Amino acid sequence: MRLMATGAARVAAWNPLGMPARELRLEHSLPTGQSFRWRQTSADPVEFTGVVGRRLVQLRQSPDDVLYRVLARGSGEKSANDAVALEDYFQKPVVLSKLSALWCSRDERYSQIHPYVMGARMLRQDPVECLFSFICSSNNHISRIQGMVDRLASRYGDPLHLPDDPDAQFFAFPTLEQLSAASEEAL
């Protein structure tokens, strides 16, 4: 599968995801040990760059919404499906603010910590990537797991390139077919 930049000559435009901070806070959802493929690329504004399926995505937290832009796609991936892929990944139909209100009313401890973790969401990751990340997690810490998952992706996955930073290296997580080509020793 070939992966192509969305346009090396021009950077993709930011698009609203339609998820305010009470529904999604990037810093409470991405670097927390559920997924190991995201890198914080800016602190102000908060931005993360990572891979969702066969898309290289940049996310930006704003006070009113999360903005996204797709920097590269695998061949066959259509831009019309970008929002759908991200909405699925972040489980947008789940109204977190309603669930949080319910949990706060039923659990005193949760009501105390909720203001500090508001917008933390469970991610819907690719099952293969999630399984291999779990296998790597045995008796390891987050930075080591991140390194192991990155090495699997960089060795067997397809490259995704940031148009404005040719030195940045991102890879789609390899498919089962790509992983099956690896020897047991190499894994």
| Total domain count | 1
Question: What is the number of strand segments?
Answer: 8
Give the oligomer, counting copies of the same chain as homo and different chains as hetero.
Answer: single chain
Could you please say which CATH topology applies here? TATA-Binding Protein
As a percent range, the share of helical residues equals 25-40%
Shape: globular
Q: In terms of per-residue confidence, which ranges show pLDDT below 50 for 5 or more consecutive residues?
A: 1-9
Amino- and carboxy-terminal Cα gap: 21 Å
What is the number of helical segments per DSSP (H or I, 4+ residues)?
7
InterPro entries: DNA_glycosylase, OGG_N, Oxidative_DNA_repair_enzyme
Keywords: DNA damage, DNA repair, Glycosidase, Hydrolase, Lyase
Pfam family, one: OGG_N
Protein name: 8-oxoguanine DNA glycosylase N-terminal domain-containing protein
List keywords for this structure.
187 residues, alpha+beta, TATA-Binding Protein, six-stranded antiparallel beta sheet, two-stranded antiparallel sheet, 7 helices, 34% helix, globular, disordered N terminus, DNA repair, lyase, damaged DNA binding, glycosidase, DNA damage
Provide an overview of this structure.
Keywords: DNA damage, DNA repair, Glycosidase, Hydrolase, Lyase. This is 8-oxoguanine DNA glycosylase N-terminal domain-containing protein. Residues 18-131 form the 8-oxoguanine DNA glycosylase N-terminal domain. The chain is α+β, with helices and mostly antiparallel strands. It has a single domain (3-180), classed as TATA-Binding Protein, CATH 3.30.310.40. Helix content is 34%, strand content 24%. It contains seven helices and eight strands, in the order ββαββββαααααββα. The strands form two sheets. Strands 1, 2, 3, 4, 5 and 6 form a six-stranded antiparallel sheet that branches. Strands 7-8 form a two-stranded antiparallel sheet. β3 (39-43) and β4 (46-52) form a beta hairpin. α5 crosses α6. The chain is globular. Residues 1-9 have low confidence and may be disordered.
